[in-house]
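ping. complex inputs:
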Amino acid sequence: MRIVDAFELLAWPLDVARSAGAELGARVDPIARLVSRRLGRGRRAQANDGDDRAVPPPSDLRDRAESARFWLGSSRPAPSPAVVGGALVDPEPGELPAAYGVDRAVLVPRDPWWIFVFWEISSATREAALGALGSDAHDACPMLRVYDVTFVDPRGSNAALSFDVEVPRGTESWYVNVGRPAATYCAEIGLRTSSGHFLPLLRSNAAATPRATPAADREVRWLEFGPTGPAWSADQRPPRPGAVTPPGDELLAPGN
Amino acid sequence: MAGGSFALVLNAHLPFVRHPAHEDFLEERWLFEAVTETYIPLLEMLGSLDRDRVPTRLTLSLSPTLLGQLADPLLQARYLRHLDRQVELAEKEVRRTRPDARLRALAEMYLARFYRARAVFIDEWQRDLIAAFRAYQQRGLVDLITSAATHGLLPVLGTAAGTVRAQIEVATAEHQRFFGRLVDGFWLPQCAFEPGIDAELARAGVRYTVVDAHAIAYASPRPVYGVYAPVVCDSGVAAFGRDPDATKQVLGAHEGYPLDAAYRDFERDIGFDLDTDYLRPYLPPTGQRVQTGFKYFRNGGRRGGGEPYEPERAREQARRHAEHFVAARRRQVAWLARSMDRPPVLVSAFDAELFGRWWFEGPLWLEQVLRRVAETPELRACTPGDALRERPAVQRATPAASSWAMRGHLEAWLGPQNDWVHRHVHATADRLRALCQCYPSAGDLTRRALTQAARELLLAQASDWPLLMLRDATSEYATRRTRDHLLRCQRLCAEVEQDDVNEPRLAALEDADNIFPTLDYRVFL
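pong. complex structure:
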């Protein structure tokens, strides 16, 4: 019985996730809510033949110019079978899968203050988690643990700061207000039991929120540009830049 | 006398909207309208500047999906058919508006414009507008650059291994295929940048890109000249910031030039005002009302109460606005000379389709700006590439993550209406990449299937679809396109995994989604 409960808790159907995610995304994010309201404003039903001049392009000029590129008038009506025809590849039948059967957690900084995390937990990982939790499985709730790994040396022993966000069951993405520009974050999705134990299931990539103020670093260095590109001197050529290194396991020891 | 450089950078792009299975497909009109209203007027402008030997330099990004469509014989034929219908409607309009001299003059103006577009398209360039841009590049008027293969939003795609590289490599290869030369500059789709993307650009041989003003303002270390000089990332790629003053003059919500009451109203169109029976031959087969391009009124009027458009007055206003714009740049240069020890570079960057497609008088304004800059001793038109070649030293700094969209970041693509896209794109990209790695050299059928799968994935990655999902009129189409390309990619992956490729279906897909003909799936390795 407990196993079944916990399974349900983790077997998140996509359609529920999608609508809940959309709704909650808007709820946790006042800006998103404002945007959807702004975009929704001024639209009216376009049932009448003479009245499909609705859908004014949005109010900002670049937005208006951008939508003008795609603006022909009204929504296209539902295609009739005669129009769609029996062509071999148009449109593609079927629906996108609800899940891909892989473990994946991805963190994307949305702006200087918010990050977006989406994830999928495979059934194998899910079952292993249930096994590990044992009798605690039935009341465990999904939780997102967000680590601030700014200035954390992945080889060092300094600990990362973290905070927890409880996410509703059936969710597969979340917007987190980290509130800190130019900081590097990494998230774990896991389960928290009633006793407060946190079992991490997946860890995301680490990524930095954009800077929102002028940089404190005022060092001025120059690079000569030759006719074909930068003319590096031997001591100037920097190490090859790579992606942000995710913090090592030793920094993010699971559990409290 | 203090001087400065003025770099005008335009981004011409449309997503891939080719639907060969349908005789007349609504969204193909996005391309046709942009050709008539933006690309042909831009070519006319370049021709006129060339004839008058105006010393000018313009930078134009032609996105790979736009190039693929401009080169496509089916779309060329359909464009011509569209243009013929426009001519026919213009002739009917000239008859219909006979009682009103002002409207009739406008109908005649449209008729002349469509005749002219046809002459440019067929007689001057034999349907090959890419050859036209190439010719102006060779004459030194324009520097052509590229953008990501399908205008993918690179900071979000960057979380899936290999996809940013594929978007960039396919783009530079397409540019080389069309223009026979290595590309110098790269337009970041939506101006979306994050540190790290520059290294991928450097790897593809790109020398510079353009970012929005706040990317430079918040770059690290702090750039000493702000947006008025390029910076160079550690990868060796230079970044130019958009001049916010120029942006505001053109696109400011209150003061933007296109809103002027003398200019033509974009929204009011006979497609919504006249009787459907009259319009039927020119409407899509779905019978819905759409824009026809015949707009007789100027800005400022309410529906039904607008004043008729007066082309001469609008032309005069465009000249005045160009003068105003160039005078502001001149003042800016004089002011900057006080605090800079080198000539500033002012970068004005816009979507090309702003000019003509939305702002009817935009191409005229552009031409006037370039003519006036050429006459202004303090200003010199250049491309970012020119500025780099002449600049003695560039400050080292990495721009901040940013975009030019709503509020300057990625909010427009990460919201409740469209964030579901990313999980599917990410999972599909991972699956295809893993599969490609299993076939370092595949047999013919497998190679074709993997290549088509790569094509479908790239098409699904277009940053246009999530944006179009935010608008009622286009949401259904954008959702369908995302879904269809992802499903096609996933099905092809499954067929390769099971070693059971359905050849007739693959051939049909290759025929329908025929972009990037020289694509090789190994771009995802």
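Chain B touches chain A through 116 residues (CB under 8 Å).
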